Amino acid sequence: MAYQREVYRAVEEQFAARRRENESERQRRKDEVYAKLPRLREIEREIAQTSIALTRTILRGGPVKETVKKIKESNMALRAERTELLAELSLPYDYLDVKPHCRRCGDEGFVGGRMCGCFARELKKAAYEMSNLGGALRDQSFKNFKLDYYSDEAKVTDGKLTERELMSKNYETVKKFAEGFDTDRMLGLLFFGGPGLGKTHLSTAVARELIDSGHSVVYETAPDIFAKYERERFGRLDQPGDLDQYEQTDLLIVDDLGTEFSSPFVQSVFFSLVNSRMIHGRKTIVSTNLALKDLSVRYGEKIISRIFGEFGMLHFVGTDVRAQKRRGQTRR
What we know:
This protein has helices spanning 5-36, 38-60, 64-88, 117-130, 136-139, 163-179, 199-212, 222-233, 242-248, 264-279, 292-299, 301-308, 321-327; strands at 110-111, 114-115, 188-193, 217-221, 251-257, 283-288, 311-316. By secondary structure, the chain is of the alpha/beta class. Helix 1 (5-36) packs across helix 4, helix 6 packs parallel to helix 7 and helix 11 packs across helix 12 (301-308). The chain is elongated and about 90 Å long. The protein starts with a helix and ends in a 5-residue tail after the last helix. GO terms for molecular function: ATP binding.
């Protein structure tokens, strides 16, 4: 349960850039005031020299207490003079100090060996971006998944449940999957059903919950995943490490399965990827517009039964929710 190395690396680089910018801006302010009042430069040098004098006293075995007392008095006088000179320029006393984005950690990201809240927030933001879900993570959650778009009268194929009742069960199953991600033995979920029925919304809701709790999530369409494996096969993949994310992320979301060009190679990659993740206890959500029988025809009964024997199978039903939203409708 941890963000990917790439997430940490990106945020560490971001904080290093902040510190460089802070120091650069500080130097700009120094150059500005030194040009107007050269005495300020002299004061900074004198303050810096006091620490050197103390070090020399300690190394020579001299009177440390007396030296410290003199240095404190000297520094207080120098700082007071600096404050007065800055005031002459209508500048605050700390104008020459570094101005970090976060005063708590000084843009170091850690305080006393513990992660600062600012670093944690940037980690989450970076994880959102690297998940490939972008703005959907802000717009789609469990809280705003509305069952009103599913009919409370129309029965699903078995005639036992209405569309809304079935989708309510699906919602609870997916929410439980997210909440018990680290403890539940279920290794994945298969969402199948027509387009616009909430599959991507609930996938995103799971991703949001997991990223917020410090897990790594990667979302990718099936065609894009298989295209990268195809390029890797022929040595044309720009970043070979791109495939590692599919195998190592805590949760992989494979969307639009069945829209890719079908071939024995694709079938092999699909089986190997999901099977490898299952062996290592890593979970996967697969979403498709195909019916189960069509999946079996396309990928083979053996592959489907092996992979999805460990998955929760959720049938999404109803009328295209996106179309209903455009028309401003809900179901009754």
